[in-house]
Amino acid sequence: MLLELVTVAFWAMLPAYVPNNVAVLAGGGAPIDGGRTLGGRRLLGDGKTWRGTAVGTLAGLVLAQVLTVFAPVIVRMTGVALPTFPITAALGLAFGAMLGDITASFLKRRTGRERGVSFPVVDQLDFVAGALGCAALFDFAWFSATFSPPVLGVIVVLTPVLHVGTNVVAYVLGLKGEPY
Ligand code: CTP
Ligand code: MG
């Protein structure tokens, strides 16, 4: 059933969705690249900070624990088979999401895009690629049990919609410089 697939996809990816949004709120301070450049352009740019990355990752880990506590109750009430998150999976999703976003900034700088300039598709799916890649790397058994091909399909369609939606909200609230 589609609603059930969407629910499982959203639940499984929540620890990957939240870090980037928390980073926007927690960002600031020293940039990861320390101001270093490569070929005359910043390695990553001022938009990737130690604090944003650390607090974002931590938020994803905490959320994964909360979801793990509540999963059995919701599963009993709804009958939807929601996954729980072992620490390996939580770390893969949360840190992977941040790493995907950081990798995208590296690519944006290499292709001459200044901080904050949009990079369609990459902006919307960088953290999904990072989160799924790291989750598979850190806990393949959990990854393959959780992300069936239909769930992965829903994630690829659903994520850009959610990403654009939350970024527009963050922009309207004045938390983010651009609506993407
Ligand atoms: N942020 C952070 N650390 C991260 C990711 C994000 O501190 N690892 C904060 C920064 O304050 C950043 C804001 O969240 O400006 C928005 O994130 P994002 O859109 O990813 O960065 P941009 O500033 O748009 O920079 P880039 O062009 O490199 O994506
Ligand atoms: Mg941006």
Order of helices and strands: HEEHHHHH
Instruction: Tell me the span between the first and last alpha carbons.
Output: 31 Å
Evaluate the radius of gyration: 17 Å
The major sheet is characterized as: 2 strands, antiparallel
List the strand order in the largest sheet: 1-2
- Going by helix content, strand content and strand pairing, the class is mainly alpha
Mean pLDDT: 96
- Gross morphology is elongated
Low-pLDDT ranges: none
Bound molecules: cytidine-5'-triphosphate, magnesium ion
Count of runs of 4 or more consecutive helical residues: 6
Helicity, as a percent range: over 70%
Break the fold down into its secondary structure elements and pairings.
Blueprint: H1 2-26, E1 37-38, E2 41-42, H2 50-78, H3 87-110, H4 122-138, H5 140-146, H6 149-172
Antiparallel strand pairs: 1-2
Helix pairs in contact: 1-2, 1-3, 1-6, 2-3, 3-4, 4-5
Bound molecules: cytidine-5'-triphosphate (CTP) and magnesium ion (MG).
Cytidine-5'-triphosphate binds next to helix 1, helix 2 and helix 3.
Structure description:
By secondary structure, the protein is mainly alpha-helical. The protein has one domain. Helices cover 70% and strands 2% of the residues. It contains six helices and two strands. The protein has helices spanning 2-26, 50-78, 87-110, 122-138, 140-146, 149-172, and strands at 37-38, 41-42. It has a two-stranded antiparallel sheet. Helix 1 (2-26) crosses helix 3 (87-110) and helix 2 (50-78) crosses helix 3 (87-110). The longest helix has 29 residues, at 50-78. The radius of gyration is 17 Å and the shape is elongated. The chain starts with a helix and ends in an 8-residue tail after the last helix. 38% of the residues are buried. The mean pLDDT is 96. The structure holds cytidine-5'-triphosphate (CTP) and magnesium ion. Cytidine-5'-triphosphate binds at residues 23-24, 27-28, 45, 47-49, 52-53, 98, 101-102, 105, 108, 115-116, 176.
